[in-house]
User: What shape does this take?
Amino acid sequence: MRKFVSLFLVSLLFLTGKTLAQSVRWDPPGGTLGFNQVGQLALVFEDCEPDGEPKLPVVDGLQFAGRPSQSSQTSIVNFKMSRTFSFIYPVRPTKRATLAIPAFDIQTDKGTVKVAAARYTVADAPVGNSGLSVDDISAATLETPQKSVWVGEVFPVSYNLNVVRRYFHSLASNVEWPSTPAVADDWTKPDPAETLVRGERRVISVQTTRASIKQPGIYTLKPASQLVNLMVGSTAFGLFSQPNVEQRQIDSNALELTVKPLPSAPPDFSGAVGEFSFVSKVVPTSAGVGEPITWTLELTGTGNWPDIAGLPQREVSNDFQIVQPKSKRTMKEGTLFEGTLTEDVVLVPSRAGTYRLAPVSFVYFDAKSGTYKTITTEPVTLTVTGTPAPVQPPAGSGAPMQFSLAPANSPAAASLPTATAPVPPENLPRDPITTPAEGFAPVTVRSLVWIRILAFVLLPLVPWLFLAAQRSRQRDPQRQRREARAALTAILAQIRSRAASSPAPAGLLTAWQNHTATLWQIPHAAPGVPLVRTSVARLFQEGAGAWATLWSEADRALHSREGSLPADWVARAEHALQAATVPGWKVLSLFAPRNLLPFLFACLIVLAPLSLHAESPAEAYKRGDFAAASATWAKDVAAAPQDWTARHNLGLALAQQDRWAEATGHWASAALLNARADATRWDLALGLQRSGLANPELVELSRGEGAFRIARLASPGEWQLVLVAAAVLLALGLVALLLQGYRKIGSWGAPTALGACLVAVLIAAAATFSLHAYGPLANPDAVFVWEATTLRSVPTDADTSQKITPLSAGSVAVVEKTFLGWTKLTFPGGQTGWVRTETLVPLYR
Assistant: This one.
């Protein structure tokens, strides 16, 4: 039996034993990291688990190069069970300096735990155990055959990588090149080859691209970089072996380049730079009246196509009906600089005759020769047969913008172009806003209801209490007695100061008798001593005799020949006055019905249901470093989510990187925080146009259509303030009725109060209508899904048996809760599910 008990206790300790201390630490806590070498740092949780995904501090010079992996381990030592949970982060130092990860607090399931600081020295780590640096076994160069180019010239760029063969394993990434301010094609695919350099085999990889710069100046283009897997040994498993691989980033040199401005251009220069061919085709050249003729211009070549707007103007006789020309731009796959621009126009002759289509000229700048060149099409003669007759113009016909109409049988050169309105340029992102400005974020419906209740109840309640207290004090039956007692104190002090005078001061004695009559409520203008004794005894039995004697002596001094008071009269009068007590003002009397308490209660009962339902990032942006600008503005948004200018600026920086969908999310937030600003409306319309995320509510908001004609006059948070203001205005109407009830204002109070109530109802209706139009966009926990993703029933990618459904980009949902990088969303139809947090843009948080 004893053995059984011992085994039971050991088993119990084995199952329940735990260490009491919880901690979170970096592993390793210090040491050396290799410059540009991808390594690992583990954030280890001992006897606790993270409460959500950890938010790590930003460390200058240390890049967390991807999502962390996770691991957990359980161990038992001395019958005590301990558990560790680890986030393992891939990291890459980008500076040769001492890096310090500062101490920070982290939330765990056992509360807040402080993570100690960690320091690491960054050095040129050798490759494996070879003692060689990465520069000893590899090199990368960024080259261009010419050190100066013309504005808009397309120039080649090559990236050359070579690695010692015995260390090369594979390429780990594509070439990364921040080419701004140049516009560049994609890099060609790598095709590694081997060569012999100074007796040692090396792997050579050459990749090329083409670029163009549209502004003159002297530029230093940033280096290109690429991750490479290097072999540093092998691990044997019996007959098999596996190579040990280290991942390193190899950086090229910067590229110095001078961009020369173009020489003075001829008047008809279109801005094209490169090599082009220009062809004109007319089919057919003979037709009858009313039969269509197609005139096609085709521009082909290599050049700065992003800056070529269109083809030159053409001229034709006004004997032709003209169908608006259609342009078609076709670019070679994978390039920005090789393409074809074709423009077709349909001519419908209305009169027989012979017509000449004049040649069309296209002027471009030839970068090779450094001169402007003109290519001209051949003239074409058209023969039109048949009887002149009215011709119905085809659908969509009319004088096109690029055409001038000349009279029949007149030289084309003598015709004048048709006056046309200019075409607005295509929308571009606007300039950043430098002054921070926060908008109003909405509150929850519960909070809004309580704010309106308090505003409606407290605002009239405070003046009502003041007015009721004022009336209660004025109508207090003891008020005159208290005032008389205070006056008697002052009169006795004056009589004492004139005690030596004879006869006694008659005016003071008369005043003393008058205030005494008020104090004891004597109902006679000239009472005798018996009436005085009776009146005092009714209120103060013990002092009746003393007051009657004092009254008799005062009468004798006023009406006798001597006119003097006994020597101790003043002392006895003061003693009698001190013994007399008068009840103070009763605070609860202000709640008496005579102070309009029923009126207030009736108003509250009738009207209460109405209320219940009622380097600065800008500088980085200007110099074209949009990645740095977006990173800084993202921090500003995280620190002040309701700063709509930071949202506006962050969207601009993301848009410049072609991250239109994510930019649209931040622009939608800016518009919801400040719907009246012209910049936020412009941003939202541009984002929806470029990203293609046509959320119906956001489209109507950007255009001001439907219910949003009224709703976008204010943000959801401002409309909630309007609801509160309506409750306040309704309460002020009640205050006006109170003031008239207390006769503090004239007869204008009632119509004014009714008018205020009517205005309050109209304002509340407009606010309610607008908040209904915003719908889920007015929820403080609303988020914008900027990337198409998958909605999952449980927060994990591992469970393949769970129910999933696609979630479209541009959707708006409400956050229910978060868990380790996952967010649970609720949709208006009641659907719920989990998505990755990084696919969401919070609109207010």
